TrEMBL record, chain A:
Its EC number is 6.3.5.-. Allows the formation of correctly charged Asn-tRNA(Asn) or Gln-tRNA(Gln) through the transamidation of misacylated Asp-tRNA(Asn) or Glu-tRNA(Gln) in organisms which lack either or both of asparaginyl-tRNA or glutaminyl-tRNA synthetases. The reaction takes place in the presence of glutamine and ATP through an activated phospho-Asp-tRNA(Asn) or phospho-Glu-tRNA(Gln). HAMAP family: GatC. Heterotrimer of A, B and C subunits. GO terms for biological process: glutaminyl-tRNAGln biosynthesis via transamidation; regulation of translational fidelity; translation. It catalyses: L-glutamyl-tRNA(Gln) + L-glutamine + ATP + H2O = L-glutaminyl-tRNA(Gln) + L-glutamate + ADP + phosphate + H(+); L-aspartyl-tRNA(Asn) + L-glutamine + ATP + H2O = L-asparaginyl-tRNA(Asn) + L-glutamate + ADP + phosphate + 2 H(+). It comes from Citreimonas salinaria. This is Aspartyl/glutamyl-tRNA(Asn/Gln) amidotransferase subunit C. The gene is gatC.
From TrEMBL, chain B:
It catalyses: L-glutamyl-tRNA(Gln) + L-glutamine + ATP + H2O = L-glutaminyl-tRNA(Gln) + L-glutamate + ADP + phosphate + H(+). Its EC number is 6.3.5.7. This is Glutamyl-tRNA(Gln) amidotransferase subunit A. GO terms for biological process: translation. Heterotrimer of A, B and C subunits. It comes from Citreimonas salinaria. Allows the formation of correctly charged Gln-tRNA(Gln) through the transamidation of misacylated Glu-tRNA(Gln) in organisms which lack glutaminyl-tRNA synthetase. The reaction takes place in the presence of glutamine and ATP through an activated gamma-phospho-Glu-tRNA(Gln). GO terms for molecular function: ATP binding; glutaminyl-tRNA synthase (glutamine-hydrolyzing) activity; transferase activity. PANTHER family: GLUTAMYL-TRNA(GLN) AMIDOTRANSFERASE SUBUNIT A (PTHR11895:SF151), TRANSAMIDASE (PTHR11895).
């Protein structure tokens, strides 16, 4: 499997990372090196093996579905690059 | 009495209680050592006001006869831990200016135990790296040099700042985190001790996430006893982390007897790698002899899927990272790119993340995105998770056959020069070849310094334990430490 610049551009788009056109070639090469390394996994016989979901067998704890926290709008917004009138502000989303 | 910052935690604890030293004296001596260690670039955010306040409180508690375990012990905290009101940016530009409104569970527990925070420690960006060269703060320099050669060496990564700070005696101990070897590899490169506990021992709450199914916090310390003392304070169940184990934490320090008679130590044949330097091979064989002389039984074992651990890791960790790092979008915290006229929200995301993430982080996020994308999810991600099951099963099989711990080299080499391995990402990944299996299987692993190579650089051995048996593992490490008698320190040049 070889990654071309078009695929690299598509992945960058999916990851929401802007990559300049002239950098796509190098990126595709990096992907190919890494995916070439990962390719070894195809040798392993995984027939009938369950994919791991959690490394330590444990049952997630249950708790009543109630509000236990909140009411800290100032703290929640304190690190926002642009907070206005109690909201996170972003560029216009809907025309 | 030992020069203050050079003290071990156990020693300082006793001296504080006896009144031979005060927490303020100890803290000021460490702050001075940090001020004089700029060239190492280990501490990146200094918190002398917090340290002084905590030290004063510690002295008051000692005086009142109410001193908890770590009362007055000055520590460095890896930048991955969120510390309230103090910059916590995972060595990333994207978190520039971020000051958490909360404290991570692990650091809360350390402070409750009386510890003093000297500052935040440098690391690889988002803990992605093995040489501390991906940090937005610049490289950390290893306090060790190869004899008179002035070449700057890596302290390893990702907990490179923690390793350098402890090795250079800027603090008495430090926190680290380990996703594929990020505590154990830098510990080995700097001649200190570092343990990654069983997955679920330490709460991950408030630690910036890299790969949530692999990440664990752990201590980096000057010896096994100090590691046991720190680990004790860091562990425990936390309702805020659903993967944190609700199990009692034993008294690790009291388990350090050094008696390992009758323990069965496994030597995995798959860890004898082609092209492994003879010095690593020799150290491993000395380690075997040390444990045997201490009364342990050695047994050759097989962990057949070892070879596939690194490739499986480089699917699973980037996949989880791509999901975890989706939160850095320029909306809620950290960096937001300056936008051009007409830019919408997608441009904001894309520009913010392009400016905020470094190259290695971008690479891993995109690899993760690729292996999770439609059409590749089964071939890569699901296959890697199946291989992970097999890797864990390898360990379960040998433990069921009576193996108590497994001895391996910690790293495939000693510390290398900064800049040496940047070109090829896969070459850098090979640093974790002996450590990454442990994260995939969720096991505890410890790196213990065991000797110097021909260049005069430290080399470490790794012991891998059964799940939840950190106490037993620390005791085996303690026996190894006593037999190895490693006391070398880097000569001060900074």
């Amino acid at each position: 499997m070889s990654i071309d610049t078009e695929t690299a551009a598509r992945v960058a788009k999916l990851a929401r990372i802007k990559v300049e056109d002239e950098a796509l070639e190098g990126l595709a090469q990096d992907f190919n090196t890494i995916l070439g390394f990962i390719e070894q996994l195809q040798e392993v016989d995984v027939e009938g093996i369950e994919p791991m979901t959690g490394v330590t067998p444990m049952r997630l704890k249950r708790r009543p579905d109630g509000v236990t926290d909140g009411g800290m709008q100032d703290k929640v917004l304190s690190n926002a690059p642009d907070a206005r009138e109690g909201f996170f502000a972003v560029p216009k989303v809907v025309e | 009495m030992t020069e203050l910052p050079k003290m071990k935690i156990a020693e300082a604890r006793d001296a504080l209680r006896k009144g031979d030293v005060t927490a303020i004296e100890l803290t000021e001596a460490c702050l001075k050592a940090i001020d004089g260690a700029g060239p190492l670039n280990a501490f990146v955010h200094h918190t002398p006001e917090i340290a002084t306040e905590q030290a004063r409180a510690a002295d008051a508690r000692v005086k009142a006869g109410d001193a908890p375990a770590l009362c007055g012990i000055p520590l460095g905290i890896k930048d991955l831990f969120c510390t309230k009101g103090v910059p916590s940016q995972a060595a990333s530009r994207i978190l520039q200016g971020f000051r958490p409104e909360y404290e991570s569970t692990v650091t809360s527990q350390l402070f409750d135990a009386g510890a003093v925070m000297l500052g935040k420690l440098n690391m690889d960006e988002f803990a992605m790296g093995s040489s501390n060269e991906t940090s937005t703060y610049g490289d950390v320099v290893n306090p060790w040099r190869a004899g008179n050669d002035e070449t700057k060496l890596t302290p390893g990564g990702s907990s490179g700042g923690s390793a350098a700070a402890v090795a250079a005696d800027l603090c008495l101990g430090a926190t680290g985190t380990d996703t594929g070897g990020s505590i154990r590899q830098p510990a080995a490169f700097t001649g200190i001790t570092g343990i990654k506990p069983t997955y679920g021992r330490c709460s991950r709450w408030g630690i910036v996430a890299f790969a949530s199914s692999l990440d664990q916090a752990g201590p980096m310390a000057k010896d096994v006893r100090d590691a046991a003392i720190l680990l004790q304070a860091m562990c425990g169940h936390d309702p805020k982390d659903s993967t944190s184990a609700d199990l009692p934490v034993p008294d690790f320090e009291s388990m350090l007897t050094g008696d390992i008679k009758g323990k069965v130590i496994g030597i995995p044949r798959e860890y004898r790698m082609d092209g492994m330097p003879d010095e690593i091979e020799a150290l491993w064989s000395e380690g075997r002899k040390m444990l045997q002389d201490a009364g342990a039984e050695l047994r050759d074992i097989s962990l057949p899927h070892t070879k596939y651990a690194l490739p499986a890791y480089y699917v699973i960790a980037p996949a989880e990272a791509s999901s975890n790092l989706a939160r850095y979008d320029g909306v809620r915290y950290g960096h937001r790119a300056t936008l051009s006229q007409g830019d919408g929200i997608t441009e904001m995301y894309e520009k913010t993340r392009a400016e905020g993430f470094g190259d290695e982080v971008k690479r891993r996020v995109m690899i993760g995105t690729y292996v999770l994308s439609a059409g590749f999810y089964d071939a890569y991600y699901n296959r890697a998770r199946k291989v992970r099951t097999l890797i864990k099963r390898d360990f379960e099989t040998v433990f069921a056959e009576g193996i108590d711990a497994i001895l391996t080299p910690a790293t495939p080499s000693s510390a290398f020069a900064l800049g040496q391995e940047q070109a090829d990402p896969v070459q850098m990944y090979l640093n974790d070849v002996f450590t990454v299996t442990v994260n995939l299987a969720g096991l505890p692993g410890i790196a213990v310094p065991a000797g110097l190579d021909r260049k005069g650089l430290p080399l470490g051995l790794q012991l891998i334990g059964r799940p939840w048996e950190e106490g037993d593992l620390l005791n085996t490490a303690y026996a190894l430490e006593r037999a190895a008698g490693f006391v070398d320190k880097p000569a001060k040049w900074w």
